[in-house]
What does this fold into?
Amino acid sequence: MVQEFTTPATGQASIAAAMKNYANYNFWAVSTLVKWLKTKPAELLDQEVASSFPSIKLTLVHIWQTQVYWLAMLKREEPAAPQEFTGTATAIMDILIDNSEELADYISTMSATQIEDKTLIVNPWFECDFQNFEYIIQVINHGTYHRGQVITIGRQLGFTDAPMTDYNFYNVYGK
It folds into this structure.
């Protein structure tokens, strides 16, 4: 379950508090988006349109696969190869919610020192040695980008009632 916390005013702990809040925001935003998507006809979630990922379902699969990768990096575990997904749109929505909660829960357990520690990442696409809070920002920003694509794909499918999932909206109304 996502943890509650108070934000320290200044100092090292404020970065940790911000990252924990940001991870909770990601879980809330995914949950809000999925709740909305579950009100839509299932066949439209598989319908292909012009986008970087051709359907809402495939975009959600990509968000999930990327969160799995970055969670492994934060845990300093060897990432598993991306899992192929052959299930339904509803199934990936449930998996994505669970994974977003797992990500938020893990980040909530990280100390300020762990959040500020560096982790070397070497993979076929890039090599970097950044502080863990930069990886947290990366994975959540990535999800935000693709949630925007889901909204755009939905608009192409005739969905005009997308929910507000901005970070500030979460901080003011979503908690």
